[in-house]
Amino acid sequence: MASSDGVLRASEFAATLNGDNHQAILKVLREFARAVRREREIALSLSDDSVGGSDDDDWSDDEMEDACTDEPPAKKLKKSEEWKADTAAYHVPFVGTAIARGERAEVVKGEWPTGLVKAYLERSPLALELLNDDLAPDGQIHRGLLKKKKSKLSRAISKAHQLAIAELLTVAIPMPKLQEVDSDGTEDHIVGSNPSVSFLQGFTKRHLPQVFNVLNEETERGRGKPGTVGGCDLLVAPALKVLKHYSMISTSNARLVARYLDESLLEGVLRVCLRPLQANKETKSISKAPRTEAILLATSLLQAQDAAVNTYICTGGNKERKVKPGILFLALREGLAVSSVVKTNDEKYMDAAIDMLEKVRVSLFSRASVTNARLRFNLMARDPLQHLCRLSLHAPPLAKNSSFVQVLDAKDNEDDELESSLEDLGVEARRLLFPLLSDSVVSPFLPNFGADQIARSMIRLLESQKAGVELRRFLLYCTKQNPTLITELFTMLAMPDAKNSFAFVSRASFITLLLSQGPSARICLSSKIGGRPILVDDVLPVLFPMKLKGQFFAKSLNNGNHLVRLECFKMIIVILNRFQSLREEGTTMYKWDKRFIERLREATFQWLPDLQILLSLRSRFDGISSYKCGAILSDHLFRIIEDT
Known about the structure:
By secondary structure, the protein is mainly alpha-helical.
């Protein structure tokens, strides 16, 4: 119920909340949340322009609901009496019932709180009207509306109430945090007036537990509510926003929220909030506000940089100990999972995911706030790595002016204007992924803890359509930094059929690159065996991929495509050169005797093509053959065979 000039006043707001006009209460709650957010953005941006339209999603379905929440007109049972007529032109519904509007609050740029919320807290430091128990989900107002079968109006008031409380809590958030969130990184100085936050104690005691009850009920106790978008009903997103703002106030508040998320929420509630939309559930909306708010809440708790909070939010859960998965653990799995809805243009979700990945990168690598190695490993293992691989493919391709070294330093694409938020998300995912794959100092997977997962992620990048020269250079760099990856790669790497010429040549050239320019066989062998005695079976996996067998080489050498035969020639030559180098180094360093070397030679040649096929190469590619390159390579190949 705004005043005649369209601006809500503090006295008017408080008086309306104390009244019994439900439509007016709904209207002023919405106006309060809009006004406080708009005034905060203007104050923190230090801009003369009014900021608008940023909170449309919070009210996207409110106008539609208004048609359902309007109270029916009162039945006219008797004639209006003359003494009730507004003969003096007071312009009020009833003589003597006008609400005192109070003075219009002034918005001071560069200061927070300011405007409406400051005026309201000066009038009511405990925010008694807004934190009134009657407005709570089980309060008297809602009980009365439900008796009158006006559930939609009741739920609309509950949503507006939660959003109004979320905006009220911003007055207690420290200025650096608030400025970072609302002013897009501006470094302008903002003045905080240290307002009275006396209402916080009452909110924490009476209203904070109710927020978690709302989350349980609105998600059908963790099972997902039928007939809703993504299993989350109307009040989930506003409740998560309240928790986000409350956790930003102090470290102790963040600890309390993290503990309540573990103790008060039922199993599956956070998973329902974070899981992506499914196409088989028909819905007109392609965005899921609770998912975005849950990601923002996880990021806010991570920014607390507190060991106790990190333990709660990063844990993977334990059914035997009845420990639930943490919100950040789920956000990196469910929150980054691909949606089956084809069109994904939810800019708010993209921005939230970008911010989360950036804060995770800083926490894991720079500040090392998550110091427990097992906790870090469980946080990023399996699904998050695969999600990062998928998302990183949306980033601009690596090139000379944007090399993998710049990605490792988080300086890639700094000056580039990317076309979409999806590309921004890909860049941030790549900045987090590449150190996880290559840096043994900061990565919880290296050197030996999760080499198989690193190798699987490298193969996924290699098989992508954007696997250019610079990406292959990065994968080669990973093996040089951590030679144990060679064995895992050779175990998992599959070779395409030679009939698919392009895929075969691409994969064969990469294997040749690893064998010739990657870590030597001796280094790979030393990192694998440690100090124990060496067996022949230990040596073969560091010489060449075990999936390459003589029959495979034979089919490739008989292929009609010259490029296929060329790459096969090169690969055999590199393998034999690698064997020669390891034989010489093994004799010197490991004191291998002739018997061991002979067994190793026999085992190696069992994986090469049959001798008859190799001998036929001389006649097929001789000096007068039209395929001169094949003749040169075959001659070089036989010289190496003779030496071995």
